[in-house]
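yo

u said u wanted the structure for the complex thing, so here. seqs first:
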Amino acid sequence: MGHEEQLKDIPRIQKVVSVLWPSFLTAGVATILFFTAFDPVDLGMLLGVEQLERLEAYSIGFFLFWMLTSTSCALTCYFRKPCDEFNRGQGHQR
Amino acid sequence: MSQKTTNAPDEVQAEIYKKREKIYPREVHGMFARLRVAAVLALLGLYYVIPWLHWNGQQLVLFDLPARKFHIFGLTFWPQDFFFLAMLLVVAALALFLFTTLAGRLWCGYACPQTVWTEVFLWIERRIEGDRPRQMKLDKAPWSARKLAIKGGKHVVWILFSLWTGFTFVGYFTPIHELAVKLLHLQTGPWETFWILFYGFATYGNAGWMREQVCIYMCPYARFQSAMFDRNTLVISYDEGRGEPRGSRKRDEDYKAKGLGDCIDCTLCVQVCPTGIDIRDGLQYQCIGCAACVDVCDQVMDKMGYPKGLIRYTTENAMQGKGTRVLRPRIVIYSIILLIIAAGLVYGLATRVPMQLDVMRDRNALYRETATGLTENVYTLRLINMEDVAHRFVLTAEGLEGLRLVADQDVFEVPGGAVVTLPVRVQVDPVHLETASSEIRFTASALDKPELHRSQTARFLGPVTR
Ligand code: SF4
Ligand code: SF4
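structre next:
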């Protein structure tokens, strides 16, 4: 079996997991590094936000990072699609 | 239209609905099963109990995120101590490498949270639904009130257990006593609630539903562990030479005469496998090394009156009749690196000075001249007392002849875990200045603890008079 057919054979769960999970891990690392370096309370003061809960800032920061990383994971998958699939989709035949 | 296009929707459907075969691992008893239960009890016991322990009025282990302080066994770490955390992670990773090279996937079989929690969920499932044949029968049966009650009951217990797990998890990051009180009054903050539910849901999903798929699709360790394996690594393996050709036989039949090996092909090793593989096909990436097949096969061998160990912990070399070497270059190198870094970490912790001194020059003026003709620089000092008890500090400065330090107080107290900023002025007679910019050195030392002191250099600017 060629690599491409094997790719299509990947169970759906593996596809979903391969986008959401690595991005979760990298987002976690990014969150830790970012908030180790910057205290959200200091950041809030710079931005003029007074009442800022740290836990809230960490959580929101994490989800922003996760959005970013999962988007790039998803785009990677999207661009890995074999060209043939586009040709077929447009009704062309080889 | 081509054949392919017409089939496409079906293919897509088939793909979406291509479900994994549900695995019903059969319950095992035996030496390794007992070891795993012991490991599960010990690890989960630690997990659920540790956040409740206190030491000197302080939660023993608390990664206090809202306060940006980690309390670990009486030590308090600040974001400035990040280096120690990084080193600790390196040590943990190296230890895992070393361990894997020596003993294969022992971690997976006995200590991984995924294994440990799955084991608990399986136990609950067996208590409620019954053993493997009954679970399979129940799943095949049409929906009825009884089935609904059994399945519903299982999920309720799973969910309650997961929620408790999630609560404990959050209790590692915010003080658990306060969290418990808030929870009892249903007053947990929105994000605390969210993370309790999030971690609870992750536990429920991973241990209840995903199970072996976590190991196969999500676990990074499972993906790269084979890179650390060599021919002397302890693995679980089926003795093909002894077992084959497999086949069923009567208990006291002379199977050797029939040309059969020791494997009676009862498929029990497949039925107990939590990842649903057949170890007789050889070592596979999916095998988490749980030794369930070893336990069950040994029982079968006992019943048949054959020697144990048709499936056993062994090494590739031993399997082929060669000796197993424990001390290989790889092991030695891993051990040396591990020892060096661990020693560095211990040294770093032992000599860590739990305070921090930052010096910032006043940005508004380079220097000014006092009424008495001295050159004066203004600084802001920031002193962090990283310990949980208050200390009294004195401040000194040196580096220039006749240097005078002017501060509001001579001795100032910094409460435990507090940050104090104080403006200070440094005055020097300009005749002692040789260059426009000289280095001076501030030192803050605790009066009540001689080893607690820190120095920081700063620039002193002035006119050049010579
Ligand atoms: S494969 Fe990964 S998730 Fe599964 S038991 Fe091993 S370490 Fe844990
Ligand atoms: S093959 Fe044996 S050791 Fe490996 S996962 Fe299955 S039961 Fe466990």
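The interface with chain B takes residues 8, 11-14, 17-18, 21, 25, 36-37, 39, 53-56, 58-59, 88, 91, 93 of chain A (CB under 8 Å). Residues 15-85 of chain A form one domain.
cya
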